[in-house]
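Box 3.1 A note on notation
Throughout this textbook, protein chains are presented in two layers. The first layer is the amino acid sequence; the second is a token string describing backbone geometry. Keep the layers aligned when reading.
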Amino acid sequence: MSEDEGAFNTKNIAVACVIIGLLLPLLNLTIISGIVSDGVADGVGEILADDRDELSDWEDPDWLVSSSERAYFANSITNLENLEDGTDTLPTLEKMGPFVYNVTTTRDIIDFDEENGTITYSEYDIFDWCSTCTWMDEDGNEHASLDGNTEISQINILWNTQKIAGVGTGIEYGEIFAKAGFANSMIQNDLINRAPSIWASEGIASMISSAGSSEAVLDNSYTSWNTSYSLGTMEPNFSSSAEMIMNGARDYSNVLGTNPDGSPSGHLCIALTCDVGPMLVSGMGEPSDTVTSVRSVLYGYSDVSEPEKTHIDWAVYSLAGSMFLNMGGGTEDLRNSSDLNARLVEVCGSGCDFSTQDPAVLDYTLFGIDDNGLAAGLIAEEDFGGIPLHGVALFLLGAQSSPYNTMEAYGMGLTQVLALADYAGGWSGLLGVPSDFEMILVGGTETMNSDSWWQHSFGGEEPINGGYLSIGLNRGSYEGLVDIGVEKASEILYGLDYGLTGSFSTAFVYGELSGFSLPTAPNGFGQVEWTDAYVAGLYGISEDDAAALKSWILDFMFPQVVPALLSFQYGASAYTTQPMNNWLYGWSDSVLEGLYSPEESWVTLETNATYYGSSAMDQDGDGLPDYLEIECGSNPSSSMSIQEDWSDPNCDPQLDGLSTGDFTVYMMSTGTGNNNADNMEHGIQRGFINSDGDGLCDFKLDADGAATYDVPCEVGEIYGMTEHLPWRAPHKEASTLGLLTENVGNSNTVWAGTIGGIADAKESFNVNLAGYSIAPTVVGSEADYKEIPMVDHSITLDPAENQIQGKLIGSGTYVDAIPGALPVYFGSNVDIKVEPVTNVAMYAKGISTFYFDYRGPGSIDPDFGAETTKAVFEIHTFSEISDDDARIFKGKVLDHMGPFFWTDFGGSGDTELEPVRVVSYISAAMYLGGLVLMAIGASNLRKLNGDLE
């Protein structure tokens, strides 16, 4: 070989060393590191799958019973008194918090389907206020948890719905209040006029007996009158009319009974020796052309010529009037009448005798005002919320519900309670046989009881005293304009289809608040505008009368009468002050307790397993809490000892207090088996399990998705499984007649597909926001968190598109969709960071805000920047990968990926990844070998170049 050829070969070898030295690290950078990174990523995926593909993987105690913290803030009303007395119209709020609670979630595996890759489990939460917990603000400052017993004042969330549901009842009670007014008037008339009239009639009968004839008494009456007024020597002849005047006069419009053949068996006696005679004659007034002509017809001297007819009339009037006045008729100071007890006994009977008792008892019975400022006496009246409230109503309601409590309250005996209840109940129509008022006493015909009086007065002029009822249609600007008649009033109040004392009252309120009728076809179709003309067509009345009726409901019954009733009957109010614990996890509502029972009165905002405070409820005082006295299951194990039912394993778990309802059931993808790993821990279906011990499934769905409610079922039976949020499921939409979605403001109802803790970092995914809404994330940029690259995801939920009264009310009727029934709007801001290798969400922070529209029922589209719409509650949640877990994850996964994965030689301790160790040494050798070869080649090239020079 020549010297040049040898130099050439040496140069080639040197160049080859350099090239191979360069290729070895490049091969390591491009191929081996990629293989290792992919292997690590695949290994992570396999680990995730291996940790979820068997039942035992899910039986981890830390998953079956997990805990977290949740922080709440509440905006409490500080000007409550001014709101209640009308001084202020909008609340002033003070933000209070944080209230930090430990949330313990308990899961019970129901089914694990390894082949299909699904797990089904039940779940419930228990919230406990945390005294040692803190909450960290945006600036990193820690704040101690406020006491959960701190009182918060806010709107009574049930108030509007109770007003809406209570309109029909309010009309019934409005009728009761009005009839109580009628009874008040009748009792006063009895005491002021009827009792003296009876005594006067008895006195006149005695005079006839003493004088020997009716004619003689009338002669004496005329002589006495004529002597007083010195009108001459006229001597009227009473021979043809005396018997009629004194004994025979009858009101033939007032039939007292009927014979078997249907003919009248008698008519009301109005003669001067009959009970109402003196009162009638006196009430008609002194003789005049008009009065005399009417009275002479009634008493049988209309055929007498003038002036004798007038003189006869003066004799009749003088006799009846003087006797009536002498007996105390028409007194203006009834309360101070010395014969008050005698008057009451005369019209009520001997059972109403208070003569042996302290006069104060009779005074309170008739005129009393109770300690709450409410009218208690039979003829007492007080204004209550703009409604005239008569004591006779309070007395009768009390006597009807608890005679013995009434005895104690009034200081009377049982005989007196029963006698007064029978007497006053007759006049009011609330108890016993209705009493009839003789309409001839006010220039009318026939008789009138409280029922007919109410129907006359509701839609027309008050028939006895004239004028218009403050509680009828002729109110405000409509006074004197409505005259619909008794038949039409009865149809409006009690009609089968549209009677307002029935369920249609709620539909009427819906029309007033929404401006539309209820749908007449599925899916919300068939609505028409709720106008005067439409309402007029429903009842067959004029549009003017319809306008008055609409105003009566919207401007009077709904805002005034029903609230007064709720306050009077149940002590309810538009605002509630109670501890934060109760606001969140349960309180007993007085209206629900009064309407149903203490056990059925509980309400909650968050779904704790039991109602807060219900464990202490012991109504019968036997020392055993009420929740242990409720039969468990459809077949209790012991009818003698209900407590033993809870030892039945079918009744487990026994919780401390009244259950808030059946537990939720979830079906979730495990990402294994037939389920693709891309949907690992994503929701599939959710429903419920019969677990609350009542033996009922709250509802069941048929093949078409239609619901049947309160269906008997076995303990542990699963029901209602759908892919939707429970309160947005199709059967819920159907129950609101198709109105729910429009009221909520969005059509995102599908819960299926929402993530658990794993999601594709590069794609948007759906998140379940506390069961109120479903929202997709917006994919952001990549950023490091705890030295781990993550992809940012965010949600900004618009409260204007998330009206949640359908969930909070949950009536399963169109009430859930009545505009402004419970105007709460849900907004949420969520930040999630997803690690792209594992697709595990390693950071999540959320602030959910509940807004209330204080404009009132019927209001829609609130302005969230205005004073009329304010935040009332906030929920703060936060979770992140721990520092230790982040360090381990970085060491085991991230540090073993990329071109320099080999530098820690597989790691050590809790970051060791054994399969990478050998490859790491090989990679290191390749790097080292490459460097050596490059060094040798470079050295030989330098030497060769030097030799050539």
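The chain has a mean pLDDT of 86. Residues 86 and 527 are 36 Å apart (CA to CA).
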